[in-house]
Amino acid sequence: MSNVHPEKIGKYEIQGVLGRGGMGVVYRAFDPAIHRLVAIKTITKSAMDPSELQYAIARFRHEAQAVGRLTHPRIAAIYDYGENENLAYIVMELVNGKSLYDHLQNKANFELQEIGEIIRQLLDGLGYAHAQGVVHRDIKPSNLLVNDDGRIKISDFGIAHIDTSSLTQVGEIMGSPGYMSPEQFTGDDPDSRTDLYAVGVIAFELLAGRKPFIGSNVEIMRQVISERPQNPSEFNPVISAQLDWAVHKALAKKREDRFQTAREFALAFVQGIAASLRSSKPAGAPKSEDDVTTQRLDQELVSSARVIAGLNVPTLNPAAAAPMAAATAVEQAFDTAGKKARLLFVDDEERILTALRSVFRSQYTVFTASSGPEAMEFMKRFKPHVVVSDQRMPQMTGVEFLREVKNVAPNTVRMLLTGYSDLASIVGSINDGEVFRFISKPWDNTEIQKTVGEAAAIALELADMAASPVILPEKLDRGILVIEAAQSVYRAATELVGDVCPVIHAPDIDRALEVLAGQEIAVIVADIGRGDQKALAAFKLLKQDHPEILAIVITDASDSELVIDLINQAQVFRFLTKPLNLKLLQQHVHAALARYQSFRKSPKLLKQHRVAAAREEDGSLIASLRERILSVKSWFGRG
Fold first, then answer.
1. Distance in angstroms (rounded) separating the CA atoms of residues 47 and 543
2. pTM of this prediction?
3. pLDDT digit string (tens) for 190-243?
4. 1 part of a folded domain
5. Distinct helix (H) and strand (E) counts, the chain
């Protein structure tokens, strides 16, 4: 390509070359009509294969249409489009600066505040574009221009999707591999959350000094689709758990698990930056957990983050946000060997947190947080023994939070506290968060103290246990007992795991008791209906006598109270709803077998499966079942 540039393109006077690419040149030019400097991006028609030229120019024109409708300070404006015999060209805003890619290539070291501002501005522009029905689909550092004064400009909407557009060739993968989302690799239609994924990649790169996934394009595609990236804090220790969470949520494999809007992402990210800045302050930082007892994250920084993200900031009661002195430990109802357990309560209502502080602060070191990301910061810094979380919270639901807690601190005893009996959330709290108990609002102070006291005693005993991987042997002698009137689940379980361990069928509870009396069982899979009180009582009795047996319940009941009862009094390991998902059944059974092996390896872990005391109305039924078990055992010669 010749280095000689034209004197004019259309009415624009060419002053120099800003950059060159495979299809054309970007010029610095002057608009004499309104005395304005502009950039002109061109396609040189002779440089293109004739078979590709028409499509390339159509895409080029499409960019002008996409951005021409957008007017926002974070988006490089397009002023004009034209064609002549030799060129197609777009006239756009001239940005005095370099691309973010150029800065990264020059090993630029951005401070946390600068990173927060870059991502905030980028999300500000994208949020506006998405509201206008425009999805960029190729967000990457080379398409982000950084003005000399630090302002971000989004450019190159060449493959952008407009609500009314269908400009994509069949089989064409749109995007740049290092910043592409799972749905782009698998060929699904991108949407606004696709752009947010790419922002997550850039955020990771700025924070960690490397992309979340590296390697060849094929290797990157495999990782993007199937692997969870490391935490940015593993590469940069000043990064808070709150910031780790925000980046990971943006990089979720499923779009429904990501932030749904750029505004949500901006709020969470800037709050994470605020938390990171606070925790990295060398002077005045808390020296011990007692210094931050019941302390909240820096409210001034968080409020600033909300303002930056364009959200309303509620008036805070300074007394509620201020640190409270640690209380003196007193004798507790459960033996904790003189140790003081750390509790973390998470709820978005300050009155709830205040009430819980008043109940527990004299006995424990108490932390409180009003959101999941804020609570994750306490998890990272102080490793609470017991976590009690509300379900309905902004940014991160209780189930999502407890799942994260289980991943980072599996020996923490987790509980869900909520007055909202949503069955899907309750089931999720077991399947994803493996909660120890479910506590309903409003609570009874005596009952909640008893439950938390039991949890604290268990957690303190497990606190020093190191997590060790469990490898299932090729063959297990302990079996799986399937309790159902029909045999459909039994046949499915036999096909799925029959090569790993014996699978036994029992049509009812009486036959199941006979099996349990005569054979070692690792996992029970039971189909339980809403009104099957005998089965419910049998499960409670089973977990009282045999906490090592893992229970998976299949039910078509929509009664959340039934599920809560099974959580608290039977420590059900997993729930499955009908119609039965066989893949989930296989996953849950394998997880249960692995947990059973972990119990055999570390019997202390059984304490996490201690059940609550039976209710008074269940007492007589459980007593009769226990007599039945004793008689069966005697018959088998095992009593």
1. 75
2. 0.52
3. 889 999 999 999 999 999 999 999 888 888 899 998 888 999 999 998 998 889
4. no
5. 21, 21
Look at the chain and report how many structural domains it folds into: 4
* pLDDT score for 344: 94
Co-location of 502 and 622 in the same domain: yes
Specify the CATH number for the domain of residue 246: 1.10.510.10
Same domain, yes or no, for 562 and 529?
yes
CATH number at residue 13: 3.30.200.20
112 lies in the same domain as 35 = no
601 and 617 in a single domain? The answer is yes
Return the beta strands (E) in 250-377 as ranges.
342-346, 365-369
Residues 6+ apart with CB under 8 A from 328: 362
CA distances 566 to 427, 485, 561, Å, are: 11, 20, 9
Long-range pairs, 217-226, Cβ under 8 A, ≥24? 217/177, 220/177, 220/178, 221/177, 221/180, 221/185, 224/180, 224/181, 224/182, 224/185, 225/182, 225/185, 225/186, 225/253
Q: What is the pLDDT of residues 406-432, one digit of tens each?
A: 888 888 888 888 765 566 767 776 777
According to the per-residue pLDDT averaged within each range, which of 328-332, 427-431, 628-632 is highest? Answer: 427-431
Q: Which two tokens stand for residue 448?
A: 């909640």
Mean pLDDT on 558-576 = 73
Whether residue 482 is predicted with pLDDT greater than 50 in this model: the reply is: yes
Tokens of 435: 């909660």
Helical axes 423-431 vs 560-570, angle rounded to 10°: 30
Whether residue 364 is found in the same domain as residue 376 = yes
- Separation of alpha carbons 6 and 439, rounded Å: 75
Catalytic residue among 31, 80, 102, 138: 138
313 pLDDT band, cuts 50/70/90, is: very low
Closest listed residue to residue 346, CA positions, set 364, 373, 323, 369 = 369
Clarify whether 138 is annotated catalytic. Answer: yes
Identify whether residues 362 and 444 lie together within a single domain: yes
Domain of 86 in residue numbering reads as: 8-93
For residues 581 and 620, membership in a common domain is answered with: yes
- Cα atoms found within 13 Å of the Cα of residue 338, Cβ hemisphere only: 0
Written as six digits, the tokens of 462 are 């497990």
- Shared domain check, 88 and 126: no
